[in-house]
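Hey, weird one. I pasted the Helicase C-terminal domain-containing protein sequence into the form twice and got a warning about non-standard characters only the second time. First submission, copied straight from the form history:
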Amino acid sequence: VFRIQLFEIFNYRLNPQAVYASVRVATLSKYALIMQRQEFFQRYGGSIPPDRQSFIHRNFAMAISLYHGYEIVQQHGLRPLYNFLKGVLEGERGSNSTRLELQRQPAFAELWDSLLDKFKPDPNSTLSSTQAAFVGGHPKLSRLLEIVLEHFQSTEDPAERQRTRVIIFSQYRDSVTEIARMLKQHRPLVRCMTFFGQASTGKNSKGLTQKDQLRVMQEFRQGAYNTLVSTCVGEEGLDIGQVDLIICYDAQKSPVRLIQRMGRTGRARQGRIVMLLAAGKEEASYGASLSKRASVNKVILDGFRKLQFYSDTPRMIPTGLQPTVSLRRLDIQQRPAAGGAARKRRA
């Protein structure tokens, strides 16, 4: 559906307007679409009639939303696609013109009906999300479950099984929620918790406050959970020595983010990293990231030979003054709590 709709937009709607040349959907990217729209309106926006501007705006918005859905279904599966399209139809994501245009397409109506049959919650069900049968939407999910279960089941020592930790990364919050829902059906062997940012992405996806983030990390360190399913917010700053397995549910084009993900394991002992990739564009993105990572490593290793530092740094402290360390105790006055007196704490 997405490939057909995108092809129609570019080759039958935008091409006659001299906006975009004929393209192959597999070679597109959301960034390229956004930049092409910006470039077109910067160059021709003031010289075309308002009705044509509106037409082109609507079709670019439609193309960007469709391409986002195309990426989701390729890399993350049908349930995140269902959540994304549900947000579009309910006005939480995308534009009104995109929503109206989608609703006019027979192919989209057929797709949406099939997604409703597969993923719409049963209002009469009394089962919780962990009790109801899990319905996956991507082959990656079953492979991820095999890897996680094998990791914990292969650890025969009960004490070691209590110490070992797993972190799963996905850039898409709906995938994080879906992965956690699947893993929670395998308690107590797998005790998982989600970890993402503070921003909300819709009425059904509230962010974690900083207090909640700190609580989750503390409980993960202490062993209340042995598996953390995280968005990119967990790619840096986590220092947990017991993490023995990192699973990357999607590929990162950025070598820095790839290195940050990999750096969450191997801190206290040897760790293992597993990449789950869909054939095609995601696999190619991972290959490009590895190539860039090799370039970054080469620059770091060659740095001492190529980088030159300015050695003649002038003295900042006036001549004749020699600083000495002075250790002092500070009493910090705290703000009084509601209905209580201020307390002092020693620094």
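That's the output from the first submission. The warning seems to come from a hidden character in my clipboard, not from the data itself. The longest strand covers residues 243-248.
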